[in-house]
Amino acid sequence: MDGAGDAAGEDMKAWCRAHPKIELHAHLNGSIRESTLLELAKDLGEKGVIVFEDVEHIITKSGRSLPECFILFDLFHVIATDHNSVTRITREVVEDFAAENVVYLELRTTPKNNESKGMTKRSYMKAVLDGLSAVDTVELVSSPFGKQCDNSAKSSMPFCNRGCGAQRKRICVRLLLSIDRRETTAAAMETVNLALELRDSGVVGIDLSGNPLIGKWQTFLPALTYAREKGLPVTIHCGEVPNKEEVNAILDFCPDRIGHACFLDEDDWQKLKASKIPIEICLTSNCKTNCVPSIKDHHFVDLYSIDHPMILCTDDPGLFSTSVSNEYYLAASTFELSKSEMHHLAFIAVDSIFADDGVKHLLEEIFESYEE
Ligand code: IMP
Ligand code: ZN
Question: Where do the domains of the chain lie, and which CATH numbers do they carry?
Answer without folding.
Answer: 3-28+84-369 (3.20.20.140), 33-79 (no CATH)
